[in-house]
Design goal:
- The chain is an alpha/beta fold.
- The chain is built from 6 helices and 15 strands.
- It starts with a strand and ends with a helix.
- The structure holds uracil (URA).
- Uracil binds next to α6.
């Protein structure tokens, strides 16, 4: 599968330009991340199965459609992924939310998991992992593996900006996972920041720098 699906909708692209601007403050940055996540999940749920139902309107019986099949869970990768949760839940308010905390050790370059709390019924759900930045792919690959270990069959990964290195890593390790992103940038710098990117998404969301 997984060539990324790149969401080039003008509203998303415009908001990403505002996100990239170093003069955008935390409040606006947080709102933009949430809005972009809301718009992206619209596309990332395009293939949800529907079933026909009959609904009685004030006028007549309507044959109409509702979502069927497995329920959804969103899993933000801490901490920047938290910024996307609001937005995705606006579109799918009944979804459950799990959390995974994993970081890339700068020395060993390995993924270190420090937190995990997932819905008890996660194996029965479709999962969309959210993290604004797909950089080296080390944390994404690890987060996906952890969720697969719980028995989840259908996993998507949704990020706002991806680097080619991260896309390649996820594609290699998890070819069954569809990636959704809104921009694919040039490369990583020596500190594994995406270039041109937007800086540290977590710091900008939470105002920690
Ligand atoms: N994480 C971020 O927040 N920014 C990057 O550029 C790379 C990883």
């Amino acid at each position: 599968m997984n060539n990324p699906i790149i969401m080039d909708h003008p509203l998303i692209q415009h908001k990403i330009s505002l996100l990239r601007d170093k003069n955008t403050g935390s409040k606006e940055f947080r709102e933009l991340v949430s809005e972009i996540a809301m718009l992206m999940v619209f596309e990332a749920t395009r293939d949800l199965p529907l079933k026909e139902v009959e609904i009685e309107t004030p006028v007549a019986i309507a044959k109409t459609k509702v979502i069927s099949g497995s329920k959804l869970a969103f899993v933000p990768v801490l901490r920047a992924g938290l910024g996307m949760v609001d937005g995705v839940l606006k579109m799918v308010p009944a979804a459950k939310v799990g959390h995974i905390g994993v970081y890339r050790d700068p020395e060993t370059k390995q993924a270190i998991e420090y937190y995990s709390k997932l819905p008890v019924d996660i194996a029965k759900r479709d999962v969309i992992i959210v993290d604004p930045m797909l950089a080296t792919g080390v944390t994404a690959v690890d987060a996906i593996a952890k969720i697969k270990e719980k028995g989840v069959k259908n996993i998507k990964f949704m990020c706002i900006i991806a680097a080619p290195e991260g896309l390649e890593a996820v594609k290699k390790e998890h070819p069954d996972v569809q990636i959704y992103c809104a921009a694919c940038d040039q490369c990583l710098d020596e500190h594994a920041y995406i270039v041109p990117g937007l800086g540290d998404a977590g710091d900008r969301i939470f105002g920690t720098k």
